[in-house]
From TrEMBL:
Belongs to the LAMTOR4 family. Keywords: Lysosome. The lineage of its organism: Eukaryota, Metazoa, Chordata, Craniata, Vertebrata. It is found in: Lysosome. This is Ragulator complex protein LAMTOR4. InterPro entries: LAMTOR4 (IPR034601).
Length: 81
């Protein structure tokens, strides 16, 4: 299991000093890790994508660390035929 949510160790860009966001993502990961289908020490996922409006948060768990990257979604215009 993951350690209890703790303050962000390092942050930059839009997520710099975003302690509330870090706490919410930690809780989301802990909840997702609770959905294990088999008894395994590994998380039941390798990457978790969270889509909010124009942004996507890509969450990766490695050991006891949670890595988050915030990306802007690229909206594509429909192709006119």
């Amino acid at each position: 299991p993951l350690a209890p949510p703790s303050p962000a160790v390092q942050s930059a860009g839009d997520l710099e000093n975003a302690e509330h966001t870090a706490g919410v993502i930690s809780e989301l990961v802990a909840t997702a890790c609770g959905f294990r289908l088999q008894r395994s020490p590994d998380p039941p996922f390798k990457r978790l994508s969270v889509v909010f409006g124009e942004h996507t948060f890509l969450v990766t768990v490695s050991g006891q660390k949670i890595f988050v990257v915030k990306r802007q979604k690229h909206l594509r215009e429909p192709v006119a035929v």
